[in-house]
Amino acid sequence: MRVEQSFRRQFTRSVAAYMTLLRVRSCLSAGLLFVLGALSRAGAVSLAHLAIGAAAVCFAVAQANVVNDIVDRRVDAIDQPWRPLPGGTISLRSAWVSYVVCCASTGCLGWLASPDLGLWAIVMVALSGVYSWWLKSTVLLGNIVIGLMATSPLLIGARLATGLGGELAVKALAICVSMWSFEVVKTARDAHGDAAGGLRTVATRLGVDRAVRLGIRLCEFAGVPAAGAAFLSPQGAAFGVVFVVFVVFPIVRFYHREMLVSSTFSASDAMNLFAVMSRTWKFGFLALAVSVVDIDL
Questions:
Q1: Which residues form the domain of 35?
Q2: What is d(CA 168, CA 238) in angstroms, rounded to the nearest whole number?
Q3: pLDDT tens by residue, 236-265
């Protein structure tokens, strides 16, 4: 009985560690973004292709997360020692095996769904490696690449359906700019560990306060294309209202409320702001979901 209980505890810890390594929530979020992109176009997509494509996207994000943790394991040991690799719950060899499995899975499933998705999967694998080993220390360029990669499931989903459209491009721009904002503020949150690890990020070069200010300016700018979508169609109006009111406004309001207390942002303030930004992202998916529904005026 004790042996069985010990096995169950070990198995549970192992599953939890791999879920943390893969960042399952971000994988599922990307899969959902792909599905919403496919549903945003009028073309018919079979349920099988939709499921296979979503799985390919999930594995693409998973491999990016794993290779990032492999490269960042020494930096994570400073400010995130609880993560699987620095914490020792997953060995480096096991992480590499997971990375190879995820790369193979996204490539095979992508080509099975469509040649376009297969090519996208290959590009994602290549960019993920380039980002983790090089672009992460190029200050703003790395954040720009991550924003584009994070938005791409929406676009490739629409491509799988019937192709891209102007309204979808405007929505994608709003999401991409907000992702740039998210990534810049993230550098402020991680400034201590990144500086100790010798990484060149927006926050380590400009300072935490200036990085946060840049992130907020980007967040405010993300509201411009979101509001512009309101003039394109009723669905665009639904997207714009939800995105501005529930994604952009809470973040900007939190920033200005904190500025009334202190004229500069500290690392702890950046961490609180990052938490607010993380919570508002579910409304970004809601904005896309309501814009998929047919609205006749």
A1: 13-163
A2: 13
A3: 888 999 999 999 999 999 998 887 767 788
